[in-house]
Predict the structure of Endoplasmic reticulum transmembrane protein.
Amino acid sequence: MTIYYSLTFMLLAAEMVTFCGLVFPLPHNVRKKVFGFLSESPIVAKIAYGLKISFIFVAILFADALQRMFRVTAEAELAKQNGTAHTGGAQAENSFAARKFYSQRNTYLTGFTLFLSLVLTRTFYLILDLIHTQEEYAKLKQATTGGSGAKGGNKEKEIADLKAKVADLTKKDRDFETLKKQAAQQAAEFDRLATKYNEATGANSNKRD
């Protein structure tokens, strides 16, 4: 395997390890810190930029490997049609099979590397969106719970104020009834005294006559 295909295989292995790390179940706080670091760190951004350039070269290798695989397949079909597939002996057949195997291997290697890079990118942003959605949901739930608690507290305060006002009005009504009774008693007493006074003054007048 040439050096650039060896590097492509190492990149594919790194992508597989990274994918396992992304989908590994972690606590929410830990995952939030990890993905926050990956999305905000300038070092990670530079590494991601370098990987994008490397994926461009992998795409070129994929196109070249795909072209070679098609060419080897076309040569095999042409040899079968012309009946020259077995004229070169076992050594020629082995050479042709090796060429076909290497072309297919390189195509699959570069193709899976490109495909997994797309899967990794999409998975990363999906998990990041999921974390943001969970944060927004937690804030909304907290705000809703706090609002409900505040509304409940306000209602209890209003009920307590109304009870206090009712008690105050009841007390004032009771005091007013007491004053009415006292006023009625005083009026009756005044009428009784006035009657006695009138009777007394009337009797004195009769005596003088």
Notes: Residues 3-151 form one domain. The CA atoms of residues 154 and 184 lie 44 Å apart. The radius of gyration is 50 Å. The chain has four helices and no strands.
